[in-house]
Specification:
It contains twelve helices and eight strands. By secondary structure, the chain is an alpha/beta fold. The radius of gyration is 17 Å and the shape is globular.
């Protein structure tokens, strides 16, 4: 696995993890908030045996550029995926997307289906209705003046714990991977809240649009996801006709961290079939 900075036509520089041979079918992995491309680090080695794997840090996240005058809305993140495909000269590719990346991925599948070979969607919000506690938590996390508090090691770990089924997996290494990109600069600290400023209702496509997705779709979902419960996966499975739904046992919201081997094998099996 190597790293590379990919420059988009907007001149944004995107830090990207890359694995596999360029002659293999391309597979783009899009993480969510508050993660980075490192979310996929445990899965990339196995996927790289079969695919040309690209795992970018979203703009505002990880080691990628963090524009401060940008509205981090659905159009911006959907446009990022399109620009990333174009920058890598990917006429088509398969896409796996998680959390915030999943919202952008669903929008991309609706607006640019001709660019997708397969679509894997994980632990995200396809619909504007969020549980009260999630709405309340996100409302707090959006407040710039509270950002220094949330980025303290103790508080950040408590936030992270909510997304894990097995809390023991939140090691110092995992804490560092999730937290450090936000704390290494003032720009990163500002991006922590700016990247989730847009209301949930403006970060989703209409349900009727989701029902028109025809791309071969695999829905992988942590059965113990506190943020986006498994019933959302069932609803999405009903809306995307012909999709495959697989629940991930003993996994919360950050299922790639908790069950990487299982998730990797499911992605490989699904893509081999399609």
């Amino acid at each position: 696995m190597e790293t590379q900075y990919v420059t988009l036509k907007s001149n944004l520089k995107i830090h990207t993890l890359i694995g596999g041979d360029t002659s293999n079918p391309p597979l783009v992995l899009i993480h969510g908030w508050p993660a980075s491309g490192c979310l996929w680090r445990k899965i990339i080695p196995e996927l790289s045996k079969h695919f040309y794997v690209l795992a970018p840090d979203l703009p505002g996240h990880g080691k990628s550029d963090k524009p401060e005058e940008t509205a981090y809305d659905l159009a911006f993140f959907r446009g990022f995926i399109l620009d990333f495909f174009d920058a890598l000269h990917l006429k088509t590719a398969s896409l796996a997307a998680h959390d915030l990346g999943g919202m952008a991925g669903l929008s991309f599948a609706v607006r640019h289906p001709e660019r997708l070979d397969n679509f894997i969607i994980m632990d995200t919000s396809p619909y504007p209705e969020w549980p009260f506690m999630l709405n309340f938590s996100i409302c707090l996390l959006k407040q710039n003046f509270l950002t220094p508090l949330f980025l303290t090691p103790f508080v950040f770990k408590q936030v992270l714990k909510t997304g894990f089924y097995n809390k023991n997996l939140i090691t110092p290494e995992v804490m560092d991977l999730f937290r450090t990109p936000w704390t290494r600069s003032k720009q990163g600290e500002n991006a922590f809240s700016n990247t989730i400023k847009i209301p949930a209702a403006q970060m989703v496509e209409p349900k009727e649009a989701l029902q028109k997705i025809k791309v071969p779709t695999l829905i992988l979902w942590g059965k113990n996801d506190f943020f986006f419960p498994f019933k959302i996966a069932r609803q999405l499975h009903g809306d995307i006709k012909g999709s495959t739904l697989i629940g991930v046992d003993k996994a919360g919201h950050f299922s790639p961290e908790e069950q990487p081997d299982f998730i990797g094998q499911q992605i490989i099996s699904f893509m081999k079939k399609t």
